[in-house]
Structures are given as C-alpha cells and as structure tokens.
Design goal:
2 copies of one chain form a homodimer. Chain A contains 3 helices and 2 strands. The two termini of chain A are 26 Å apart. Chains A and B meet through helix 1, strand 1, helix 2, strand 2 and helix 3 of A and helix 1, strand 1, helix 2, strand 2 and helix 3 of B. Strand 2 of chain A pairs parallel with strand 1 of chain B.
C-alpha cells in the first residue's frame, strides 16, 4: 500500500511545472517515490542494525542516500 | 515547502525496517523524496511542453524516470 498521498505528488508536479496534472501521472509519481523511499529505508535499516541500534537515525538515512 | 508528510516517510521506514524511527530521520527522507519528485516532475514538464501539451501525463512521468 502506497504511503505517499497522490495529492502530494500532484502538488509536486504542479509546483515544479505550472502545468495541469493527469491523475494517473500523480499516482505513478507517488508510487515511484514510495519505491525509492523504501529502497533508501532498507539500506538505512541495515546500517542501523549494523551499528547495534533499534532506531533508524538521520545519519543512517544520510549514509543510505550516498 | 515540503509536500510529502513526515508521517508518510516515517511509515515507509518503519514498514521497510521494523525498527523505530528518529523524527529527524523521517524528516530527512521526506525532504529527499520531495527533491527527487521535483526533479522527475521538471523533466516530465519539459516533455509535456515539448509535446505541445498543457497537462503532464503518465507517459511524461514514465519517460522522465528513465
């Protein structure tokens, strides 16, 4: 189930382009950003566990994005 | 102003890792996904304009993600 609201993706596209946005365009962008977020999060989770923590910290996200 | 709610980024990290999530970790992921979304949207907007349209379509997002 996607976590990022389609409405958020719609606003990102409208703000970035000044154009109108098809509903399926916003839906696809939301899905894609969810997937990218999941990949970053999985990497960050491995880093947190590797450091012996049970909490994902900002530094884990930073390193996972590198 | 970020469009993706921190709460959505928090859920993405929790679901992907099963770990607890620092508030600043969720905030950073939300900000990063906003930025990635903006870049994809800008590319998609150029493609829509190039095609003579005033609406960003799903196919613009697809091509911009390639």
């Amino acid at each position: 189930m996607p976590e990022i609201p389609n409405a958020a993706a719609d606003r990102i596209i409208r703000n970035a382009t000044g154009l109108r946005v098809g509903a399926d365009a916003a839906e696809l962008l939301a899905k894609e950003l969810d997937e990218i977020g999941k990949e970053i999060a999985e990497g960050a989770g491995k880093l947190a566990r590797h450091a012996g923590r049970k909490t994902v910290k900002k530094s884990d996200i930073e390193l996972a994005m590198d």
